[in-house]
Amino acid sequence: MNLCYVSLLTGYLTPLKRRSSYGLLPPYMSELRVVLLGNSWSQRSSVVNFILGTNVFSTEEDPGCCLRVSGRVKEKHIVLINTPNLLHPNISNKELTEHVETCVGYSKPGPHVFLLVLQPEDFTEEHKQRLQKILDLFSNQSFDHSLVLISTPREESPGLMEKVLESPPLIDMMKKCKCRNLKQKNLEPSELLRHLDKIAEEHSGDHVSCDVFEDTESSSPADQQSPKQKQTQTADIHSVKAAGKCRKF
């Protein structure tokens, strides 16, 4: 059963116009909403910090919660929802659904892109199956809105990246995502944002909309900002935790 569907925004027939150097976006898009998934909290957190250009998240410990941050980058408002380790085998189906529900609430009216941050040497067949299940919980169209970001191996050696890229689970996941993939090594923030924008543009700005969760009450999270964050040049960064959803593994 398809739990979700991709919403179709009608009545927007204005030709696409270039909004920035990152790519082509529909003129009615006011923000870009991205959900991060993967098998390493540290890597996902470092990617959020990389995009926003400031250390919003600690990369040391997985808090077991969905966390939401937003910021303005090069005249673009971007919302990033970081997830706990949803690929952990000890998370029950009920807890998994609750985390997906929280992501839906934090990305209202729906995410534009799923950024799959994968640590290649640790991405197993079990991880792949778990990640596919999570994406299917959002929508059977989630793979069309997904981009694989391949983290730099922890220990680099000649030929290692080529070897890990031959991993069948990683290859299968990239194929499911229409071979959309980037390597994090030597990647610039503008290049990553350009690819995120491109996925949104391919769908004319349509977001993934999960009607199964529409009736669920999601409390508006209170903005929490550290003094260090307030001193940054990013104007409106804030982070929140999902009340009652925290769990450490």
TrEMBL record:
Signal peptide: none annotated. GO terms for molecular function: GTP binding. The keyword GTP-binding applies. Residues 207-249 are annotated as: Disordered. Residues 218-236 have a biased composition (Polar residues). Residues 29-217 form the AIG1-type G domain. The keyword DNA-binding does not apply. InterPro entries: G_AIG1, GIMA/IAN/Toc, P-loop_NTPase. Keywords: GTP-binding, Nucleotide-binding. Pfam families: AIG1. PANTHER family: GTPASE IMAP FAMILY MEMBER 7 (PTHR10903:SF170), GTPASE, IMAP FAMILY MEMBER-RELATED (PTHR10903). Belongs to the TRAFAC class TrmE-Era-EngA-EngB-Septin-like GTPase superfamily. AIG1/Toc34/Toc159-like paraseptin GTPase family. IAN subfamily. This is AIG1-type G domain-containing protein.
